[in-house]
Amino acid sequence: MQNKGLIKFFAILFALVSIYQLSFTFVANNIKSDAKAFAAGDSAKESKYLDSIGREKVFNLGFTDFTFNEVSDKQINKGLDLEGGINVILQISVKDILKGLSNNSKNPVFNKSLADATANTQGNVSYLDKFFDAFEANSKGTVKLASPDIFANRSLQGEGGVDYQMTDAQVEKVIKRKVDESVESAFGVLRKRIDKFGVTQPNIQKLGESGRILVELPGAKDVDRIKKLLQSTAQLEFWETYKIEEMGNFLMAANESLKKTEVAIVETKPVVKDSLSALLTDAKDTATAVKGNNPLFDKIIAQGGGPVLGLFSPKDTATINGYFKRQDIKNLLSADQRYAKFVWGKLTTIRDAKDKDIEAVELYALKGNRDNVAAMSGGVVTDASDSFDQLGKPSVSMQMNGQGAKLWEELTGRAYTQKSSIAIVLDNIVYSAPGVSSGPISGGRSEISGSFDVTETKDLANVLRAGKLPASADIVQSEVVGPSLGQEAIDNGTDSAILGLFIVSLWMMIYYGRAGWYANVALAVNLLFLFGILASLGAVLTLPGIAGIVLTMGTAVDANIIIYERAKEELRAGKTLGEAVKASYSWRGAMSSITDANVTHILTGAVLFIFGSGPIKGFATTLLIGIITSLFTSIFIARIFIDWNINKKNNLTFVTNFSKNFFTNFNFDFLGMKKWTYIFSTIIIIGSVTSLAVNGLDEGVDFVGGRTFQIRFEKPVDTETVKVGLAEVFDGSAEVKVFGSDNQLKVTTKYKVNEPGIKADEEVNKLLFDNLKQYYSADMTYNQFVNAYDGKKFGIVQASKVGPTVAEDIKTNAYWAVLGAMAIVFLYLMISYRKWQYSLGAIAAVAHDVIFVLGIYSLCYKFMPFGMEIDQHFIAAILTVIGYSINDTVIVFDRVREYLTGKTKGSFYEIVNQSINTTMSRTINTSLTMIAVLAIMFVFGGESIRGFIFAMLIGIVIGTYSSLFIATPILVDTISGEDKKLIEKQHQEIE
């Protein structure tokens, strides 16, 4: 081996750099363990401890030192599935941005195009592109985007804006830039909010040009609070309010009108006598007015007063909203009230007539106008802080700029004169509506008070300081993992990795003896390099990433096996050890096969990295790095030890007494079996396609959208009973399966997955808790059931949500990933082998393997004791199977090509059969090591990736079969008879 000294130098240097990079991970983990022990389960205390030492020097190397924050930045970060926490993808509403840019245009073509773009879901097509296509189809050239009532308005005119003479194509460029600016603004606002939230190592990033923003909060536990923080647009407004006396006649008239159209309510409800009932009825008629046939008043559960029209149950708000949107009800408003805006207050808790706590919301009527614009917006707020009001209750203090101070003084002066109130509205919810009792308020200071707790005021002040979002932000995909589940994943992954390493190392020693030891040293160095690179790149380690590392152990020794098998052949041919080693490391020896096999593997891994997301990208990252590092260590590190052995004149045979006779006289007629293998594979493919047509596949929420919950109970529960109960509350959309142990269920539902906003998420969580709390002890609370915390054993341990638009994108990406991988490999093999028959045989084998795996999943998903969903993990498994199948096929094809161009005598079929037989030792060894490590992952890797590992396990087995019995026979059958005769003639002439 030339330049041996240089290779040693770089290997040692690389090892030292890897150790240096990994040292930060060890230091950070030790400090975090100390923090966890200090906090004793109190996550807030743990976070505060880590924040307090952020700038302290914690790692001294002698020549330099590092603070805890610097150490944390350099460590290998654990993904959500290992650390626990919350991961969400927010979709900034491009529809809202377009409305804002058009000044809320009333143009019918514009608004129809917005609606059409919303309704038309296509994978990987942005909302903006769908809007432009819809506008072109709806306008048919009669209306331009540059119309004054659309984008050529006053706010968009000027340099870099929209001129009414522009073409639609020119306007599109301007609008795309403006939308990008708005998304960038939203990104900045969200970053400010998250930086103040107090989570260690938050991650926020834009996802291409999709208008989506990924937010990862490792270790975060308060689910509802975080979702509110992220989705709040912080649209702060100050509205004047109507008093209950001013709206009394309208409410009375509305109630009377509704009696004519609404079904009478038979149930009698006890209603607290309030100012509204006193205003609208005489005392003797109160009972009659509020019982039995009052569609509006019967829903009042507690008194109002001042600006509050009444308190209602949260479940009735949608019905009340529907009443007030009806045109016949709107017509009952007086002329000066025609722009009244009915808005709900913040959810609160009151006591009913039975002295029982119930939830309620207040109803307000705001003084609107033709443009539906508040008297004053929150854009004038320059600062906000959490504080306490005069009664000692949590509140938020705000400071306004000069313009705001002036408007605030006018607004409070008017409220003081009219004895009315000012509603402080955030994101269309009234947080408080104080009156003004001491005259106009000057100076621009104000306060929001209400039924807050300290955490809420901190979050509210945070979002106000960070500023408002330019448009609404909806959570289109989310995942919540409890810390206990993350620790289980780490334990399972570590156990499977150690056991996999032990099995592979033991087999290499048993089969190859001393050379196996050298391969094991190379494997250990490979793992050091792999983790060192992950640390230096700041990569995130996920559970599929650990699976990728374990898989790397199986593939890492593949190059050594190819080299060792070639060296054994050269030794049998009579060459000396040095000559055999030199020949095996040559291009005509093992290097061409190793190169072709690994290039195809890298290509499929790259496709997986490009089209994958989250944990799947982590799997692709470790797989790609592992392929590269294993090539280096297998070829160079192991070679250093082999050359040292040669120089010491030690005998190195690459066999042991156990394996010395394995496959030495192996002579199986593979081509003679092709008739039967064709029949077998045809039956399998027909059966798979039939099953796919009849049974379909168990498509996970990644592909169809929906919500999934992994829920643990204190004891086993009846799955069917739970399913029936949940189907009732989720409108029939409830799938319930045992997931792993018999006290753990996986619940899937599509209930309100299309509905944006935090309210739908909260409603689903509460319905789930209300329906399942009967299976828990009496002290289980909603927060304990929903939120994550250290030591959590029962309740929701993992939850995820995928919106339909994201699901469509994921499905489209999956199709392109599989087809793209096959196309790229086909082109590479055609270029490498210069004959299309090789590419056809390889792709036919890959297609066979993919259909086979899909068929197995279609046939078995209904009764297998583990999840067999078709999701992103499954696509990762399919691409890995493609990579392995091609890898295995290339090894066989390289040997076939070598024998067909070599000096082996015999007929065409005999030559091909001999070439296949010489690859059997490598094929069986590599397949066995891969199957062994995958089987270990399947047993010990944890329930969440069991289906993913099973797909790879089946794929490896069928991939080995197809390389021998499908790819090669197709190659042989597609080579023309003339070429076969020519090859036979050339080999007969060889002396």
TrEMBL record:
**Cellular compartment(s):** Cell membrane
Q: Which residues span the membrane?
A: 497-514, 521-540, 623-642, 676-694, 814-831, 838-859, 874-893, 924-942, 948-972
GO MF terms here are: protein-transporting ATPase activity
Residues annotated as domain Protein export membrane protein SecD/SecF C-terminal: 472-642, 790-973
User: An example Gene Ontology cellular component term from the record?
Assistant: plasma membrane
Q: How does it sit in the membrane?
A: Multi-pass membrane protein
- Which keywords has UniProt assigned to this entry? Cell membrane, Membrane, Protein transport, Translocation, Transmembrane, Transmembrane helix, Transport
Oligomer status and interactors: Forms a complex with SecD. Part of the essential Sec protein translocation apparatus which comprises SecA, SecYEG and auxiliary proteins SecDF. Other proteins may also be involved. Forms a complex with SecF. Part of the essential Sec protein translocation apparatus which comprises SecA, SecYEG and auxiliary proteins SecDF. Other proteins may also be involved.
What protein is this chain from?
Multifunctional fusion protein
